[in-house]
Every structure is written in structure tokens, then in C-alpha cells.
């Protein structure tokens, strides 16, 4: 049965702060047509509840211990295709938004959103729409345009690299460390190290400095 056929929107709330999570659950419970069917204190629990309960929406905090919100979003989207993810976080930066969107989230709200804004966003993403709250919309559009330009330049100069490898090479060329890239892209340090090694091998760079020079000559590194 589709979400639009249901009278009640079923929601799982995932946030590692018990007081905020309980308060948000109470607020959502007071809304007509919304039922909180589960609460999760970390990303692993959010994925487990999504699989067990098949909610319409998981309201996902980004900053959680263990499995973070971005990775948890990726898992929910992969395992529960009928469930949508709406990210709710203190962070209002475009990097966080883009990471969540790349993971499959349908929308993003800051924790300062009003009850009405959260309710509207839940229904919108459940219906297949996309939601951007706060001041992030213009930032996201700007980053998307920048990413598209970078992708075009990278694809022309390094056609054998994957999209992820081009993204990492662009950040390497911008002078970011592996740790900074991992934080920016919500990846593990090990994953970034592996990607960087693959990139160096594919483009024939003997070291990181050579890769940076080659990338900058191709117009990368503005990120």
C-alpha cells in the first residue's frame, strides 16, 4: 500500500540525544495524521527499525555515534526502498546536505525548524518530494553547479576515473588531507586512503604532489 493511501504517516525518529528525541517524538505525536512507530539512538538501530517496521519516513539526525546519519541513510535507502529519509541536524552547511543527498535522503531540515515545517516536510518527502529547510537551498544549488563543472573538467582530463575518484582528486588538488576529505564526504579514513591510492595508480602519479600538480593543470582543485 502506498504512502498516499494511508491515513496515518508512520515515522521512525533517529537521534542520539534522548531528551531531544523524546521531545521530538512528543511533538510529532501531537500532529494529526502522524504516528511515531519507533525511536533509535544510533544509526544501527535506525536501520534495524526501518527494516522491521517499514515506516514511511525515517527522521534522521546526521551526527550519531557508531554508524553516522549519512551511512545510516545509505543503508536505509538500500534495504528499505519504500521508506524515505528526512535528515534533521544542527549542521546547516552545504557539505552535510550534499552528503545526505548522495546517500539517498529526500530532504534536509535544521533542528530549529518549526513543528509545522517538520510536519509539511514529512508529508512532502513521503509523497516523493524533496525538501530543503533553512538557508541551505542556495548553498546546495551552488555546490551542485560547482560539482557539475568539476565533473566536466575531470571527465575530460581523466576519463578513466569514477565519479567518486574524481571527487576525491578534486579535494586532494584543493590541498585537503585524507582526514579532511573523509570528514567532508562522510567516508572512513581507510576508504579515502584506498581511493587516493587508486587515483594515483590510474593517472600515473608517483606521489600525492604529482597528482596535485596534474589535477590543477586540468582545472581541478577549486573545492
Structural overview:
There is one protein chain. The chain has 2 domains: 3-134, Rossmann fold (3-Layer(aba) Sandwich); 138-217, 3-Layer(aba) Sandwich (Rossmann fold), CATH 3.40.50. Strand 3, helix 3 and strand 4 form a beta-alpha-beta unit. 54% of the residues lie in helices and 13% in strands. Residues 1-5 have low confidence and may be disordered. It has 10 helices and 6 strands; from the N terminus they run βαβαβαβαβαβααααα. Helix 2 runs parallel beside helix 3 (69-79), helix 7 (163-173) packs across helix 10 (208-217) and helix 8 crosses helix 9 (189-203). By secondary structure, the chain is an alpha/beta fold. The protein starts with 8 loop residues before the first strand and ends in a 6-residue tail after the last helix.
General shape: elongated
Number of domains: 2
What's the architecture of the largest domain, going by CATH? 3-Layer(aba) Sandwich
Return the CATH topology of the largest domain.
Rossmann fold
| Class from secondary-structure proportions | alpha/beta
Beta content:
5-15%
Distance between the termini: 43 Å
Run of helices and strands = EHEHEHEHEHEHHHHH
Tell me the name of the CATH homologous superfamily of the largest domain. Response regulator
Q: Please give the order of strands in the largest beta sheet.
A: 2-1-3-4-5-6
Question: What is the radius of gyration?
Answer: 19 Å
Protein name: Response regulator transcription factor
InterPro entries: CheY-like_superfamily, NreC/VraR/RcsB-like_REC, Sig_transdc_resp-reg_C-effctor, Sig_transdc_resp-reg_receiver, Tscrpt_reg_LuxR_C, WalR-like
Keywords: DNA-binding, Phosphoprotein
Pfam family, one: GerE
